[in-house]
Amino acid sequence: MNPTEKANAIKAMKGGGRPVSALTAYDYPTGRLLDEAGVDIILVGDSLGMVVLGFPDTTHVTLAMMEHHTAAVARGVRNALVVGDMPIHSYQTPQQALATARTLVNAGADAVKLEGGIRQVEKIRSIIGAGIPVIGHHGMLPQRVREEGGYKKKGKTEAESSAILKGALALQEAGCFAIVLESVVPELAETITSRLDIPTIGIGCKGTSTQQTCDGEIAVITDIIGSYPWFVPPFATVRADVAGEINHAVREYIASIQ
Ligand code: KIV
């Protein structure tokens, strides 16, 4: 399947009974392992700034970093849709947004993701007009963490909920094939999911771990495999202890060569 067919296949999963599965990856082995396990979408997220590069947030990530990691992941993936995340300051105008999207596609991405609602519509149209599929990202926007003074749950007031719903509808209207919804209250996630014809892919949008408020789920890979134990968001379900395994293996190795 070509990138547009892959994106259309994700879009067609709306209401199809099977939730869209999405995970982040930042390197070749992880991309390959996730693909072999059958995940639908692999996002080369700008979360790499924190969980791979050791920065305090995503605002330090550059396009050159995203290009480098997108190329590594893409080399390992055969089936999943690879999404390259557009970093902060790389989509300030429609022209710059298209140039950035092309850079990530040339590195191996099938599609790109950018953060924000109504104010991104012209940029999204310019990227989609060039034949590159776009996934939106609305709700809590990590690239705005400094202005907002932290990561805050969104949609707690009527005004905020209505602005986010309008933004999500605008992203659909602009042609996005899906939308990542991050850290919005469960009721708002459910409303947006029922109002949109494209899949919502949630992170931090559930009241309980078993509740389904979106058409799919995305998680940061290091959160679910336990390879970045120094910070785990409260909504993450940790399913493995890779950090513990590494510690054990390294201690065993050191002991073995004494
Ligand atoms: O960069 C990232 O990992 C993301 C996810 C949190 C959706 O944008």
CATH architecture annotation: Alpha-Beta Barrel
Number of domains: 1
At the fourth level of CATH, the homologous superfamily is Phosphoenolpyruvate-binding domains
The number of distinct β-strands equals 8
Strand content: 5-15%
Give the rounded overall mean pLDDT: 97
How many separate helices?
11
Dominant shape: globular
- Report how far apart the termini are: 53 Å
What does this protein structure show overall?
The chain is α/β, with parallel strands linked by helices and 258 residues long. The chain has a single domain (3-219), classed as TIM Barrel, CATH 3.20.20.60. Helices cover 43% and strands 14% of the residues. The chain has 11 helices and 8 strands. It has helices at residues 3-11, 28-37, 48-51, 63-76, 94-107, 121-129, 145-148, 158-174, 186-195, 221-225, 242-256; strands at 20-24, 41-44, 81-85, 111-113, 134-139, 178-182, 200-203, 216-219. The chain has an 8-stranded parallel barrel with strand order 1-2-3-4-5-6-7-8, surrounded by 7 helices. Strand 3, helix 5 and strand 4 (111-113) form a beta-alpha-beta unit. Helix 8 runs parallel beside helix 9. The protein is globular, with a radius of gyration of 18 Å. Bound molecules: 3-methyl-2-oxobutanoic acid. 3-methyl-2-oxobutanoic acid binds at residues 24, 43, 45-47, 85, 180, 182, 203, 218, 220.
